Every structure is written in C-alpha cells, then in structure tokens.
Amino acid sequence: MTGVIVIRHPLIRHNLTRLRDRRTPPQEFRRLLAEVAGLMVYEATRSLRVRRCEVETPLERTVGCELEREVLLVPVLRAGLGMLDGILRLIPHARVGFLGLRREESTLEAAFYHESLPAGLERFEVLVMDPMLATGGSALKALDRLTQAGARRLRMIHLVAAPEGIRAVRSRYPRVPVFTAAIDRGLNERGFILPGLGDAGDRLFGT
Ligand code: PRP
C-alpha cells in the first residue's frame, strides 16, 4: 500500500478536535494522543503480511497465522513519544528504536541529537511516528537514516500533516505510505501547522 492515507474514523476525529483545543491540559493531551495513536495504528497495520502457522488449542491442533515480519516502532523524539504507549498497547511484542531530532527555530532545519536502533533493520516492518509533519524536514532525516541503516519496509504515522510536508516526503519516498488523521491548510512563517494543534512536544511535556 502506498500513498497518503487520511484515517477519518469518528473516534479519531472527535479526539483530534479535543487535541486541537488550546484549553486541553497536558494530562488530557497525553491521554488523547495515546488513544488516537492506538486507533490509527489499527488501520496503518491493516496490510501487514501474515503467514500460516500451526497452533495447539487445549483440544487439538489447528492452523492459524502470525505476522510475517518483526515490527519496529520508531518514535521521533520528543513528540513521537506521546504516540508510543498507545501503539505498544496494540503491538506489545514490537521492538522500539528512537531517533532524536530537533528543529532549529530560525532555519527550521532538523538536526539529530540521539539515535538508538537495532541492527538488521532489513528484517523489520518499521512504523515511524511523529504527531506533526510540518515542512517534512524531520521526517526526511528520519527516513534517510532508517533507509541508510537498511530499513526497506517503512510507514509513517502522523496526527496532523501540512501539504508541504506531504509533498516533501512523497517526492523523495513515493513508496512509503503516510498515514495521518488530518491534512491541514499549511504552515505559518514560523513553520507551525495551521490550524494545527500548536507544538505537540510542548503540549505533551509542558516545556
Ligand atoms: C516538531 C514535531 C516534528 C517536527 C515537525 O518537533 O514534533 O518532529 O517539529 O516539523 P518539520 O516537519 O518541519 O521537521 P520539534 O523539533 O519541535 O521537537 P520536539 O518534538 O522535541 O518538540
């Protein structure tokens, strides 16, 4: 599956509206973001491949299925952390890697400050999560690093995406599906998504 997929489930749309609300306090913002991320990953993993396997029930042997590949979750720090717990609730056996990227305020250029990834990324289905896709600079840096490290099967999961960021990712990585709960109008002069929900990292952590 490729392309941009807007997941328009009623529960996601309801919670996204509450996440956009400036009056939503950090503890509520955290809970809502985790919930939305869990609902989104259900759709974002719909096309994961499974293979046949056998299983012994308490009564007899039968045929079932299991995921063909291991799943690696990669939250982009900091804000991606807000999606991790909700997604782990659905895929508790997933491995977790981390990429720390900070957008410099004046240039909007993203720079790495942390990396922790398992070896052998070729064997994983990799789900990269970050609530915001703004200019796309952070997403491109993350995708560049992951493909350089061997990742072949990648999916991006965002809460809110700007058309600018979508274009950037689609033009360099046309085969990577981008899942989002909304495509917003665009960016302001400071690179903030409009109408957006503010700075997700700041709203999650209050700093
Ligand atoms: C924000 C956001 C994304 C990035 C999006 O992170 O969480 O990672 O900016 O912008 P881009 O598409 O223009 O790169 P920020 O750098 O503010 O770090 P934080 O998550 O620690 O708040």
Summarize the structure in words.
- The protein is of the alpha/beta class.
- The chain has a single domain, classed as 3-Layer(aba) Sandwich (Rossmann fold).
- The chain is built from six helices and 13 strands.
- The chain has helices at residues 10-20, 26-44, 81-90, 137-148, 163-172, 200-205, and strands at residues 4-6, 50-56, 61-67, 70-77, 95-96, 98-103, 110-116, 124-129, 132-133, 153-161, 178-183, 186-187, 193-194.
- The strands form three sheets. Strands 1, 4, 5, 6, 7, 8, 9, 10 and 11 form a nine-stranded mixed beta sheet that branches. Strands 2-3 form a two-stranded antiparallel ribbon. A two-stranded antiparallel ribbon has the order 12-13.
- A hairpin with a 5-residue loop joins β12 and β13.
- α1 packs antiparallel against α2 and α2 (26-44) packs across α3 (81-90).
- The N and C termini lie far apart (37 Å).
- The site of 1-O-pyrophosphono-5-O-phosphono-alpha-D-ribofuranose has 23 residues, from β6, β9, α4 and α6.
